[in-house]
Request: fold
Amino acid sequence: MTEEASIVYVGTKKPVIKYVQACMSAFKGAKQITVQARGNAIVRAVDTVEVLRNRFMNVKIDYIDIGTETLGEERKNVSTISIDISSL
Reply:
């Protein structure tokens, strides 16, 4: 990723359109952004990128990384996703 990259963290509390708007704002200052989420928010992150790509902007998915993080003292495993997208 370049120095001009931004990260949009997706959660479960806001509607998808709010994350789409955050991505559109991030593209004003960067050529490439990363959409990141973990756990139940993964579905919302994928929806965010798809809505952005199909309805609002001409973007390209550059890279998708999936993984697992271990959280807390209970050593609970949580799935993660990181989607790199760039504007065309």
